[in-house]
Sequence to fold (95 residues):
Amino acid sequence: TSKDGYLTLAEFEAILAEDTVKTWLSLMELDVHDTKQVFCILDNGDGLVSSSEFVEGILRLKGAARSQDVMRIMHFCRTLISEVSLMQANFQKGG
Fold:
């Protein structure tokens, strides 16, 4: 890494390819087969992952999602889509 405290996608992919990191993630019950997707989840939008973003994000990803979690997310997405559609309709009406 560049040792600046942040990981680029390339650095992230290189680190996740290391056996010790793979072992650690396996012990955490994390399956990281799509490194780009995981990087995007951890990234706050600046294209870099800080050490705190990495640790906090990995801990949030730990374990498999329960059906209840998935259903809660689906409900939230439906609600969000409905609210955005309403806002868009109001905007188009000019009010």
